[in-house]
Amino acid sequence: MDTKYFGTDGIRGIAGQFPVDGVFAQRLGIALVRYLRQKKSGNLLLLGRDTRTSGPMLIKGLVGGITCESGDCLDAGVITTPGLGFLTKELGFDMGVMISASHNPYMYNGFKVFKSEGIKLTKEEELELEEFIEDVKESSFQGAKGAKTLVDGAERYEYFLKSTLRRPDTLNQFSVALDCANGSTSHIAPKLFSELCRKTHFIFASPDGENINKECGSEHPHGLAQIVRKGTFDMGFCFDGDGDRVIVIDEKGQILSGEHLLYVLSKYLLLTESLTVPKLVTTIMSNSGLKVGLKRLGMEIVETDVGDRNVCYRMMEVGAKIGGEESGHIILFDHLKTGDGMLTALKFLEAVSYFGKHVSELSQELEIFPKKMCNLKVPKKLPLSQIPQLLPTIGKNQSRLGDLGKIIVRYSGTEPLIRIMVEAQDVNLLGEIMDEIVEILKPYTLP
Asked: Choosing from 102, 286, 288, 327, which is the catalytic residue?
């Protein structure tokens, strides 16, 4: 059964429009308290937001809903999504709610819900929560109060990030450049990395509420890549608006994929005996080259559906300590149960120090197979099995590729799009297979 409000990563949409408006935020607040009550949990919630102009409006709605239902909440203010997840568990909150639309432009916003363990809700729990949301009537909006403020949340989170390092002193050899996406990391990363690294240069760390992710951050890493290329930096890190992912740039200004991060970090954890279970969880969208590279290290890859929530729960099932996506969501289970861009960057710096090589040298150890991607707009999301010849064509071509490539056709969880990815070690097959699949899909897409 599909969820009504929750998508791949929480509830998301245009701020000020249903379901990302003040009234829905109140309904959600009421529903969360009732949900917790039904679970016989407490009713203390932690709230946080990124730097979007719509954040305070949605926080106000949530607080109103929570308090009129006799719940209690603290406002952590501007914080990263993983920071909120960490604080929810560390400080004993019954639930956490992050107001963010991650890497999307400022006009979007949304709600990400964390359980007391600092992990996101399962799909089944989202469906259950949606039943409570549907039952809320506007007549319930009575007796709202204000929220207390969590004054030291950012400091606690920063202290935690430092505590994950085995030898913090080894980072002072590096010169790094940071792109904070004018988002949540703007208030933490410049200070944190300046204290640990020899030299730190940062850009897009001046949020004004409307410039979050605007031509910057993980979705637009080329600006920082140019700075690294022209400067004397050992590497660069591009965060996204809520700080749950990172893109790494090597000393030559080359942009690395999430697979490069996963490979380097896995090798580091293996060699330092920090990885007791030689498994890595990634998504169906990950590059087949990662599987080949990790196999050489004696590691097994376990694949799951797209989304860091899916990666997290699959990691729990198979006992893996590391997982992530090609988008730069990396989960290091010994520290957090969600993707954290700054944590990943710190551990990557630690790994580079351990190996004593340039980032470009480490990344060259992994062969990334060529791939093509195509997004097509659709009027409705027809089941793929109902599109004639699609599944047989995919099966036929996957047999041609074997283990040296993959074909993924799936609908976006947040947009009216069908996404096609074709990957092959043999570059000559890419265009041929992509064209064949697009031709089959054309009658079911918009111009």
From this structure: 102
